[in-house]
Amino acid sequence: MIGWDDVYKLIASMFPLYFALILGYGSVKWWHLIKPDHCGAINQLNCYFIMPLFTFDFASRINPYKMNFRFLVADGISKSIVLVVILLWAKFSSKGNYRWSITSFSLSAFNNTLVVGVPLMHAMYGPLGENLVIQASILQLTIYMIILLVMYAFWSVNESLDQEVGPNDQLETDLEGNPNEDSMTRRPSLLIVLKVVGIKLAKNPNTYASVLAVSWAFVANR
């Protein structure tokens, strides 16, 4: 049974995070200490420096030789079930599409494990809970997040090509009424799309941080 002491631990673990969020919101909305155009620079600082270092710090603590593989398999099965449900929705629903499928999967299957999950699980279950949520975050960062980025990259490439070509370019014909080969939409080869995806992944610092952290943990705990 959850007691008042457990509630206090949860509030104490979450208060610093939400206090920082309220300060950030108030600095822009109420006190005007930070201008809206400065938020982009702050987001880039978080994306390219703070979050990768934060991820490396937590992921490097784990012992990869003593991971709870039953828990990780259960996490993978739950994500697979969510993915199947979303694919069925996209196939049989008139409102289903590729973009909403990616967004729905990311919202349903992914969670903020490090920033929110670590303090919550540590407050409720101690070091065991913290260890499990870090294991889930490693799998999410090194496997599932990369797959999600690949899906986003594929969608982005196809969307940009559709905008560049336009719907009228596919309707041009020659004097005999046959489709003009020069004006027809030419989809890129799989190799070109994979190259674009690889470039996008190479620019993501969180990918490097998670892979380096796992490598460091393997060496440190061998």
TrEMBL record:
Q: Which GO terms describe its molecular function?
A: auxin efflux transmembrane transporter activity
Which processes are annotated in GO (biological process)? Answer: auxin polar transport; auxin-activated signaling pathway
Which InterPro entries does this chain map to? Auxin_Efflux_Carrier, Mem_transp_PIN-like
Task: Give TM segment ranges.
Answer: 7-28, 40-59, 71-92, 98-120, 132-155
The main location is: membrane
Q: Might you report a single GO cellular component term? A: plasma membrane
* Keywords associated with the record: Auxin signaling pathway, Membrane, Transmembrane, Transmembrane helix, Transport
Query: What does the UniProt entry say about where the protein is found?
Result: Membrane
Q: Identify its membrane topology class.
A: Multi-pass membrane protein
Family membership: Belongs to the auxin efflux carrier (TC 2.A.69.1) family.
Q: What is this protein called?
A: Auxin efflux carrier
